[in-house]
Please model this.
Amino acid sequence: MPLLLPFAELEVGKHLYWQLGNLKIHGQVFLSSWVVIGALLALVVVGTRKLERDPQGTQNLLEFLWDYIRDLSREQIGEKAYRDWMPFIGTLFLFIFVSNWGGALVPWKLIHLPSGELGAPTADINTTIALALLVSLAYFYAGLSRKGLRYFEYYVEPTPIMLPFKIVEDFTKPLSLSFRLFGNILADELVVAVLAFLVPLIVPLPAMFLGLFTSAIQALIFATLAAYYIGEAVHEEHH
Amino acid sequence: MTSWLLLAEAGVPEGGLFDLDATLPLMAVQVVLLTFILNSLFFRPVGRAVEERESFISTSRADAKQKLAQAERLEADLKEQLKDARQQSQKLILEAEQEMDRLYRDALAAATADANASREQARREIDSQRDQAMDRLNKDADQLGDLIVTRLLAAS
Model:
């Protein structure tokens, strides 16, 4: 690598490989995702240790989040089914949000890995595809469990002409979900890294703030679209 | 600068941006586990707390509404009673005034009659006394006349 500044090194596409049997996994993604999950669980455990009728401190924050996630899922999924899917939507939102912000705010570069570098778990295509496929499974399961085989009527509604488009949609949904998240987060990290490499002081700050904004928006978009797809699958046509 | 662009290209034997491997399913399993953990640690307890509070608030509101209605009913009741009492007292006052008036008139009439009676009596007494006095005077005058006549007759 021609880059020598310690905080502005760019390592894209390098991974810390762990060998698991004969499977290879990206160690840096798991390390940072454990940090993210640990932070989330710590917050949740601290906040729900003593739930009271008059919320105090962390309970306020958790109830705010709960309310936010409930509103999001109720709006997209609908009054009837949102309760079953709220934990999934909420977990997606919280995991992606904390991953994105953790990638932007935690000074990962201070920790040196033998290969690759720590960063937002969502900047790895494996993570985003995993999340997107989970969403696909979720909406298929939601539709099939609620409507049984009648779920497939959705493919020919309002007219059978829609059939090929709806089938293509089943592939484009996870594709667009995963690539949008992956692209935004990776691009943000790259922009900040390139700017920090060119001008280490001050100049990257606006890009960093923009990155925080994008990160939050991406988490919201992912969760909202996931909820929307599930809502579409469980939606009952009124004949 | 170009090195990371090269690395980003597909076809790099080891690594690369689009390096899919066992990270994908393991991450999916991890997220599903996280969903279940967060469901039991976060979504269910917080949801219960929020819904308990909501039901507490709505029952308290219903209670308060009921109490308010009761208070309003009591107030109307009391107002009605107060009005009745006022009317009653008004009637009592009127009656008392009429009674007083009547008593006053009675007393006045009695007193007037009394006064008239005593005046009449007094007048009758005066009259009788005057008659007696007149009688005596007449008698005296007669006696005097007689005396004068006898004296004059004796003298002549």
Q: What stands out?
A: Residues 2-125 of chain B form one domain. The two ends of chain B are 196 Å apart (CA to CA). Chain B is about 90% helix and 0% strand. Chain B touches chain A through 41 residues (CB under 8 Å).
